[in-house]
Amino acid sequence: MQDQASIVASLNSTWFASGLEPETQTRLAELARTYHAEPGQELFREGDPSDLFGVVIRGRIALRTLVPERGEITILTIEPGDVFGWSTVVPPYRSTSTAVAIEPTEAIVFEAAGIRAALRTDCQLAVALYPRIMLAVSRRLNATRHQLLDLFAAEEMRSW
Amino acid sequence: MTHGRVAARPRVGVVKFASCDGCQLTILDLEDELLSIVEHFDIIDFPEATSARSAGPYDVLFVEGSVSEPAHLDRIVELRRRSRYLVTIGACATAGGIQALRNWGDHDAFRASVYAQPEFIHSLATSTPIAEHVPVDAELRGCPIDPAQLVELLTALSTGRRPQLRDEAVCMECKRRGVVCVMVSRGIPCLGQVTQTGCGAICPRFGRGCYGCFGPRERANAAGLSRHLQAAGDRPREEVGRLFAGFTAYAEPFRTMVTELGGTRQARATGAVEVAPTGGGNARQ
Amino acid sequence: MVMVSPARGPRARPEGPAFLARADLQVLLDLLREDGRTLIGPTLDGGAIVYDEITVVEDLPRGWGDEQAPGRYRVHDRGDERLFGYVVGPTSWKKWTFPSLVPLTRSSRDGHRVSFEPVPLDPPRLAFLGVRACELAALGVQDRVLTAGPFVDPDYAARRANVLIVAVQCTTAAATCFCTSMGTGPEVESGHDLALTELDDGFLVDAGSPAGRAIVERLPIRPATAVEQYGAAATVAAVRAAIGDPVPAAGLHDRLLAQLDSPRWLEIAERCILCGNCTLACPTCFCTSTTQATDLAGTTAVMSRIWDSCFSPGFAKVAGGSFRSRHRDRYRQWLTHKFATWWDQFGESGCTGCGRCITWCPVGIDVREELNAIAPARPPAAEITLVEPAAPSPTEFVTARVTATKAETADTMTLSLEPDHPALSRGGPGQFAMVELPGFPPLPISISRYLPGGLELTIRGAGAATRTLCKLQVKDEIGLRGPLGNSWPLDRAIGRDLVIVTGGIGLAPLRPLIDAIIAERRRYGDVRLYYGARTPADLLYRGELERWKSGNVEVALTVDRAGPEWLGPVGVVTNLFDQATWDGSGMVAFVCGPERMMQATVSTLAGRRLPASRIYVTLERHMECGIGLCGHCQMGKYFICRDGPVFSLAQLGDIFGREGL
Hints:
The structure holds 3 protein chains of 3 kinds. Chain A is α+β, with helices and mostly antiparallel strands. Helix content of chain A is 35%, strand content 28%. In chain A, the strands form 2 sheets. In chain A, strands 1-8-3-6 form a 4-stranded antiparallel sheet. Chain A is globular. By secondary structure, chain B is of the alpha/beta class. A 5-stranded parallel sheet of chain B has the order 2-1-3-4-5, sandwiched between helices. In chain B, helix 11 runs antiparallel to helix 12. The termini of chain B are far apart. The C terminus of chain B is likely disordered. Chain C is elongated and about 95 Å long. Chain C has an 8-stranded mixed sheet, sandwiched between helices. In chain C, strands 17-18-21-20-19-22 form a 6-stranded antiparallel β-barrel. Chain C has a 6-stranded mixed sheet with strand order 25-24-23-26-27-30, with helices on both faces. Chain C is an alpha+beta fold. Chain C starts with 17 loop residues before the first strand and ends in a 9-residue tail after the last helix. Chains B and C meet through helix 2, helix 6, helix 7, helix 8 and helix 10 of B and strand 5, helix 9, helix 10, strand 13 and helix 14 of C.
């Protein structure tokens, strides 16, 4: 069985899950399990139903998307402390990109059914978690906006 | 070798659409520079100057004239395909020319009243600038173009730098040369403030107001100028609108001024939109 | 100073003001034209009283007066014999001291070699007759801007030294004058060689300098009577009373700068045509640009200086766009510079109240009205650490030879250069050089490394000129002026932990900083470099990044996007440290990149508790001269080229990231 204490300790080492109330931490630990991925291992695929929501403890996961004519492009990497698979808790519950571990990765993950049910029924858990999910998503959105501005791009090549 | 610089002796063509040929003539008027130009550029097609003909491909193609008849539509696309740099020259090519005044009118009625057999006259309802049909790499404005600007463009091509075609008001040139402003000192309406410089401020130098033949410059506040001309000079809207209905009438924002203020008889007939004057502009001229 | 050889024997000098009869004025004009001087004075020409070359009293506008209002100027017949019965016209004296077109440098290019030669200074000897008090003040203002700073405009200084000034007291005022509010008139007080006050029968004459006194001694003067003196004083007092005090000048600096968001700017933008007339009519405006004239082959070029204006569209343009594209921002720039930030830069107001901008604005915008509407009823000097640059004036260039080239990325090249002058290899990290190829506009490029006897420039081919530079080969030559600007204040970082955040080409001006840190690594604490680029292929200095890691610099890289072979982080550079565990409160940060990236970085660093006084950024603006004389690179009160390009966030305050400043 998973050692709950060590799961709580791992969660506490991440910005996403540190500083939660002890009851909340225990509740989360009950829903969680540790997860290991080897380099090259795919965690989920773009478009598939999303059933894994997790926090990276160690390693790195690349989020990739397929661009016809250009191939698979890495658009973001998930570093230790970041969450992945937030589509698991947000409708329509489909993955928005493909996730591939590119380093030996250890994560704490929550199965879809369990975490969705808990967020629906356990108000304390919901109150504690949703703001942090929002922060993770907004951080991602901000980053995406900057990438969109393509600030390092050369000026549109006009003749003069 | 510099980037932007074309091949050792660039292949240059000069073609004409609907125009008076004045801009082409300006090229030939560069008497002192012609020999040097011909040494640096290979003029492969220029009907007004040489009987040599070529269908391209061109390193630089100068296009004079506006798109005014059906055959022009395909011809300009084909010429664009064959040109590395396409440079429009003159008010017709850059703004549609004086002939663009027909864009506000009833083209068929004109045709029928002038020609006994109008069915033989193939013309489009509008006269439009080249840039409305194909991408253009550079523009030489003016009616006709300014020879010094042409030489600057050719020099930029052969040295690889950006051509120094300043997008500022004619006023800057008047002030640099010490020309006394005709609007302030004589109350003569002058479009110089909203017109792109390049002519060396010719008209104000001779005591007349600029009529905008180089076309509107970047962000020209033509609306602000028309409000001032109406208020300060106590002029009716149509008179102010007519000031913009000249060689570059069809270029924005002159076009909007003509339409809204009723600069052409047709625009007046269709009913111009009220342009409410704002406060400010205390001068009484 | 005028060397006047006495034409007659010494004469008894009268005490107090002297009087010159009207009939004798030609004597004065003749004296002014001695020693090869050309006399410039007022004359009627095509409906306006302009300054032009004159020789005889008949050239002066006898019996003419002027009537001025916003956007309106008319001359009229006064019905008397007065020669100076008007005020200022469309020309200002800057037409001669700061002409609209001045050739600066002749250059040529022959194969690899380049050569630069300043156009020899040959200022004409001039005498100005009819200079008003506001114009005297304006000459003083331009003297301050162009000759009293760390860099001197050699052409202006030479012309100015060759001018003899005969001032004329205003005996009438126009409806557009406001010298009283600006403290510059109507009384002529100083700066003149001679001053005249016109009365019905003649002129009160006053000498203001040894040269002026030498001329007075040769005039057929007599002592002025008490009635004449009283009459002159009363006239000037009447002028003062007629003007009143239209502009609330006391405290205007602070009030105006507090109104950067006033809705009035937008209202003005509806009327202002951005034609630039006000700036070119103004006697103190000094912004210029360079223009290149070349032959068709591009082998010889002349670079000239022309009047430009902060209203022109390209004035604040850099490769990524214009820093001041909105209408309202340009008018705001002019007004706030003239009446507020000029104080910070030069210790006085930029406006002398002559009213030309009011009269010669074709749509009649009146600055007095605007100032009263926007700021009805002052900053620490910028810190400049200067290296004595090679070729400090815009007319002199030092040649440098390309000794090696390295393609860093597909569009970026590093040139190793050996200059003919040692100063260029002895600058500080963060300084830049003005780089010049004959026929091309001068470009500011950061120095990306100092070598013994040389330097490196890393250049991104973003436009015609930079692309040309990227194509240079070994043995090609270019022209340089520099090192210019200030440096990263590494001394503030001693003993502290450092964080360096950069993106794209921004690593280039930071590379000499990192070189300096590694050279004395023990003086600094933890050093962390966070560097982002568009794609892995766009990372600069890849070979050196490893070397830096072994120099005990922590290097974290990220890209905006990558293919599957990239195993590092992908995302924005702030993601690398926004959730880091370090506490920034004791750290120093150095940031360089596109301005939007710097803003995001700076706010993330503030979130990591770095204080604004220890976050340094480097700014980029359109530069033509690089030494604070052409006016283009201003941001608020700072000249980026001279007060920067490195600034602390505390210095910039809330003007950093502000639209249109």
